[in-house]
Amino acid sequence: MDTTVGAIFEQGQRSIKVPVPVFIRASASVVGTKEGEGPFGDSFDMVGGDDKFGCETWEDAESTLQKEALLLAIGKSGLSNKEIKYLFAGDLLGQSIASSFGLASFQIPLVGMYGACSTCGLTISMATVMIAGGMAEHAACVTSSHFASAEKEFRFPLGYGNQRPLSATWTVTGSGAFVLSSVKSDKDRAMISGLTLGKIVDFGLKDSMNMGACMAPAAADTIYHHLVDFDRKPSDYDKIITGDLGNVGQKALWDMMREMGMDISKVHMDCGMEIYDKSQDAHAGGSGCGCSAVLLSAYILKQLEEGRWKRVLFVPTGALLSKTSFNEGQSIPGIAHGVEMVSCK
User: Fold this and answer.
1) DSSP character for 297?
2) HEC string of 300-333?
3) C-alpha distances in angstroms, 16 versus 126, 226, 326, 337, 344?
4) What pTM did the predictor assign?
5) Structural contact between residues 90 and 115, judged by C-beta atoms closer than 8 angstroms
């Protein structure tokens, strides 16, 4: 049995060294009104004037987010729909209906994926493996979340008006889309050089209003194994970026990393803590599949594209619960997927 290909890909215990260049050729971000009023409002490609985006339901609005983001990303890439071999997508809604209804018109073979709020990292990882393995020249990834559809899915109808504790996060209304390619171009924003897929980590926490604490152990596990597998230190990265731990989860992550003998506090950034400012009453910060996805497109890739950052570790985080598991008293496991990106400059 020929194991040459596997040997090229494998890096340490848990990681993958991408053996050929995989470029992020283009990306796009579409967000809602609250996100548009935040610190990165001028950086997003599209800000909706109405969080229903002209639709009748919140779920249709989220599908529209994905459709608009992917249209923009493909348009920027200079490719046609037919040139994109696979589309990797997912969201937070039951059976990923935001993706299936939003992306049907593209007629690109769809790989539906679920990683909760880590879905952006999961879709990019799988698209990278397909391209690096020679199974596709171009692939696209898209994910989304919507405050109103997520509240309806996981918590309470908005009309209920329940009070949110300070540990709670605010689900980002937004979608990020990315076009990956094996072909170098003058449009490339960054290159993907390594992957560390996460495993399920469950500390037995059950508080759905404190997602940061539930996800922090998974983030620590993935970051630790990535650094060990690639024999690197936190200082080898301009930024180590988590998805949506918020200020509660960040403290837990730093403490756990220090217990593992690694201090990431000087290079750590959390998308959930950055996307809103303190005046927007988001409590612990932002969350949702769209949180890390829109900041990756609007901000993180810009830093790499312009050469201000040379290498980042992007680690979207997810809480693997459903309303069924929560109502049955189950704990909330976490997962996090790491994507190493480097500047093409």
Assistant:
1) I
2) HHHHHHCCCCCEEEEECEEECCCHHHHHCCCCCC
3) 11, 9, 34, 12, 20
4) 0.95
5) yes
Q: Are 106 and 139 in contact (CB under 8 A)?
A: no
Q: CA 258, CA 256: separation in Å to the nearest integer?
A: 5
| Both tokens assigned to 100 | 């299936």
37 Cα distance to chain centroid: 21
49: its two tokens: 């004037």
DSSP state of 235: G
How much is the average pLDDT of 172-186?
97
Confidence bin at 154 (pLDDT 50/70/90): confident
Nearest Cα to Cα of residue 137 among 199, 83, 95, 57: 83
Q: Give ∠ CA 40-187-315 in degrees, rounded to 5.
A: 50
3-state secondary structure of 155: coil
Instruction: State whether the Cα torsion 94-95-99-101 is positive or negative.
Output: negative
